[in-house]
Amino acid sequence: MAHADLEDISPDNGSRVTFPIRNVTLRFNEDVSLPRIIVRDSQGKMMKGKLARRSDNTTATFTLSTFLRRGNYRVQWKARSADGHWVSGNSYFIVQTTTP
User: Fold this and answer.
1) What's the fold here for domain 6-95?
2) Entry pTM
3) Distance CA 25, CA 63 (A)
4) Whole-number pLDDT of residue 97
5) Hey, where are the domains in the chain?
């Protein structure tokens, strides 16, 4: 059995977001368990929020407590594949707009 692969992350890695953002979403090619998503600003401060998974267990969304302010952000993620192995990664994006 192969490890799960991240098929999509929103916002996209390296993207410049020009609209208010409050969610970070990961979609995998197979079911995952125990997903973790951490969003940090350019000073390393962890953003507060809540993690939710869809019933199919292939999608995890981190909903931030507030809209992100203008700046650079890093997403650190981790999830356990169906084969029991952990997969993880990082993603970066820039928010170029002010909060609503």
Assistant:
1) Immunoglobulin-like (2.60.40)
2) 0.91
3) 9
4) 84
5) 6-95
